[in-house]
Design a protein that fits this description.
Elements: E1 2-5, E2 14-17, H1 30-34, E3 40-46, E4 59-65, H2 75-79, E5 86-89, H3 94-101, E6 108-112, H4 118-128, E7 137-142, H5 149-161, E8 167-173, H6 187-197, E9 206-210, H7 217-223, E10 231-232, E11 238-239, E12 248-249, H8 253-263, H9 279-297
Parallel strand pairs: 1-6, 6-7, 7-8, 8-9, 9-12
Antiparallel strand pairs: 2-5, 3-4, 10-11
Helix pairs in contact: 4-5, 8-9
Protein name: 4Fe-4S ferredoxin-type domain-containing protein
Pfam families: LdpA_C (PF12617), LdpA_Fe-S-bd (PF25160)
InterPro entries: 4Fe4S_Fe-S-bd, 4Fe4S_Fe_S_CS, Fe-S-bd_prot_LdpA_C, LdpA_Fe-S-bd, RLI1
Amino acid sequence: MVSVNDDCRDLHFRKAEFDPEDCPPDCSKPCEKVCPADAISLERVMIEGKHSQSDPSSGKLEGGVITERCYGCGRCLSVCPYDRIRAMSYVRDPTKTAELLKRNDVDAIEIHTTGKGTDMFNTLWSNLGDSINNVKLIAVSLPDVGDSTVNFMNAIYTTMQSHLQGYNLWQLDGRPMSGDIGRGATRETVSFAVHLSSMSNRPPGFYQLAGGTNSYTIESLKKAGLFQSTTFAATSGVTDCQQAFIGGIAYGGYARKIVGRVLRKIPAQFGHARIEDHPDYLLEALQEALSLVGPVKGYPTLPSL
């Protein structure tokens, strides 16, 4: 899958940026502490000619944002005591995206839209051209924009309909990149689902939750009556599976958090190791992942390690 956006205001397409030379050498580095992706690394180094190791002001900070790790959550922006961190937004080039879609190894596209209007979406769709015919799944990720949400969805579905060669999926982005914050983060995305489930004129397609999803999401969906009821027979196979409004749950920040717990257990002497090279840790990470995916897929509970 490749992801693309129709508006530079989309939070999923931004990176934090700052110059560590602008940071006071005695800064407590709250940005480094709050980053959930370990995407900020700052090291205090001594300036030549200054020898007081105990005096923080005698050195300088080096490092900064590790761009490939940053996913744009924005938590560092608000904690910087000197307001030195910027968010650099970008729009992915639709021409390059179209070239990717023509490759044999790309069979799905995720389109992020802010829901502010159809013009930008239609422009992006037009620029993608016939390349969209090569994919098996088109996912549209959007926020809840209130009473106009369903009308907006129907309008862009009309735009897409003639080119749909496979499945289409609506990703309900309740509270972007916040699932790892705490239990309450899932309320907005579940409320979004409740809102749409009551609308008889919503467009066809699968519906998936995202933005604020975590280990409490399924519990909240069950309370709202939106989660499937699945039981397993003694033999392989599924019985008594009722069709649900919600077809899936995307765990982003929360998945990074739980897998990160395992990654941090890998002994420091291995440096930036590949988890695939450590079978015990890989198995533990897979079990953590299955604890999230299993209930959605209807898998039986796995025994603990």
